Amino acid sequence: MRVRLETAAMDAITVRLFDTINEDNMAWIIAAERELRQAFEGNLIDLTPSYTTLLLQYDCTRLSFCEASSKIRHALNHLTPADTEYGRLHSIPVWYDESVGPELQRVAGSAGMSVEALIRRHCEHDYCVFALGFAPGYGFMGLVEEALATPRLATPRKRVAAGSVGIADRQTAIYPLLSPGGWNILGRTAVPLFEYARQGEPLLRPGDKVRFRAISKADFEADGGDTTPLEERA
Amino acid sequence: MTPGLFVKQAGPLALIQDAGRFGVSHLGVTQGGAADWISCRWANWLLGNSPENAALEIVMGGNLTLEAEVEVTLALVGADLEARLDDKPLTARGTFTLAPGQRLSFRQPKDGLRTYLAFPGGLIAPEVLGSRACTAREQIGGLHDDGRPLQAGDRLVWQGSELAPRFLPRGVQLPLPRPVCALPIVLGSQAAQFAGRSLYQAFNQTWTVDQRADRMGIRLTGSPLDSALSGIVSEGIPLGGVQIPPDGQPIVLMNDRQTIGGYPRIGALTPSACARLAQCLPGAQVRLQPISATQAQMTHRRQLGVWA
Questions:
Q1: A163 shares a domain with A206
Q2: Among candidates A39, A15, A41, A40, which has minimal Cα distance to A28?
């Protein structure tokens, strides 16, 4: 791991730690986030960790570009990865059904397996949360096994219902709120990701692990899930 | 029910905005805030408000009509949207008083796109994650905290009554469009990934502001730029980030941008350049003018200094 600083904007620096996506990056990214928050304190405006980088926006009325750069270097000088116990494991109940998961057939077909097998395989893996973005509380997770990897829809949907669980290439995610989107939708969860995020306490955080768990329609409804078919919500 | 300003008719887009929502990008929550922050700040300044106070960002005008239920002094700064107090034209560079029953209305953009209406002590609206900024895409903020723009039947109420109205100092330049707007841009390190000819083109051609423009991003059209990178691993995007998707037509990422994204960027416009671009209508001509981060910071501090 080598720290590289890149100019991103007048008052923002991209701190680059890695070049490619890897679960092992997360322990370093999380440790770097902690160190940078501590080092900048009130001079930090925003810090956006992602797969391989952290975007740091500082208060440029109080720090010059050089001061900010040297503060970053100093803070990350002796960086050690966060210990491996940092992440929480979430079990996310999902109702996989054609009505709320219109791409079940498409993904199963391209993977050459039955819908039942697809659901089983999607639930078999602990996915790592790499980054939050796109929408409040939206966690980019992966990596989905190669066989299930499916490209985004050629034409994104204008509206994807909140709670929709999807796959794009080797990533998987849950839409926290009604939004446009081009992912292949497999099912729906009633877990209120958006509500957590807007309280400032996102359920999924980088470095967490997520395991999906297939539930019945009855259980989904008992959790307060909305069974309106996806396309009717569009 | 507190009397205030009643929304008789909603225009195409009027949003409660403040300085923005900061310290939340790691949640996936965008910055929001007044797109022309300079005009918004002047509007608040005219009433003696704090820069963080919530004001109304009025886009296009489009017959937005507000009726006073109580006497109030407001400040209006920004684009000329043909504002009228009853039938009397108002310039968007000062304060004015509405008597109960009087109406404030906006027609269409004559110069610029957004104008800011400030209220004594700032508008009252729920604070979410430290801000009242209204973000439609995130269903956060605004009068009802659902990200909805102003609707007919809404009522605007404000915090304070004490007023120290001021006049806009002589010679103040608002970030309104010019025949060709020069937009200062701080080059990012991914600029090196663009072919030399593309970089030359980026800074030596006139770009046209496209129809596809909103608070999330503003597309520019012109001779396409080539990057050696087609996509990158998604990373945090700063305000004003100029990303180049595979079609080579730049998108400037504005206040409501997504927090992370995977297109290469040549750099980022300065905050003042973002304010000016936010005032440009489709068809406006702009140029990108590279400056160093240090130079940009000096200009920015000078800009902030006028309100000190």
A1: yes
A2: A15
Q: Which residues of chain A lie closer than 8 angstroms to B137, CB-CB?
A: 135, 179
> Which contiguous run of DSSP H or E holds residue A107?
helix A104-111
* pLDDT < 50 stretches in chain B: none
Minimal Cβ distance to A202: which of B27, B236, B304: B27
Q: Do A134 and A228 belong to one domain? A: yes
Chain A residues 65-104 within an 8 A CB cutoff of chain B: 65
What six digits make up the tokens of A82? 């966060």
Task: Tell me, yes or no, if A46 comes closer than 8 A to chain B by beta carbon.
Answer: yes
Contact residues, chain B, for A51 at CB < 8 Å: 233-235
pLDDT per residue over A143-162, tens digit each?
999 999 999 998 889 999 99
Residue B221's domain comprises: 180-305
Check if A15 contacts B (Cβ < 8 Å): no
Residues A23 and A105 in one domain: no
Q: Is the pLDDT of residue A234 over 70?
A: no
Distances (CA, A) of A26 to A74, A84, A174, B201: 20, 9, 20, 38
How close B27 gets to chain A, by Cα (Å)? 6
pLDDT at B172: 95
Contact B198, B227 (CB under 8 A): yes
| Structure confidence by residue, pLDDT tens digits, A126-139 | 999 999 999 999 99
Give residue A233's pLDDT.
Answer: 56
Whole-prediction pTM value? 0.95
> Could A7 and B189 be called an inter-chain contact, meaning their C-beta atoms sit closer than 8 Å?
yes
Q: Is residue B170 part of a domain?
A: no
Question: In this structure, are residues B279 and B114 in contact, taking their beta carbons and an 8 Å threshold?
Answer: yes
Residue type, A179: S
Q: How does DSSP assign B33-83, residue by residue?
A: --SSHHHHHHHHHHTT--TTS-EEEEES-TT-EEEESS-EEEEEEEEE---
Tally the domains of chain B: 2
Does A81 map to a domain? no
Residue A125 has pLDDT above 90, yes or no: yes
Tell me, what CATH number does B221's domain have? 2.40.100.10
- Is A10's CB within 8 Å of B26's CB? no
Domain that holds residue A49: 4-75
User: Do the chains contact at B241 and A44, CB–CB below 8 Å?
Assistant: no
Residue from B26, B232, B270 to probe the interface with A (highest A Cβ count within 10 Å) = B26
Residues 134-153 of A with CB under 8 A from B: 134-138, 140
Domain check: are B93 and B22 in the same one? yes
In a domain, A84, yes or no: no
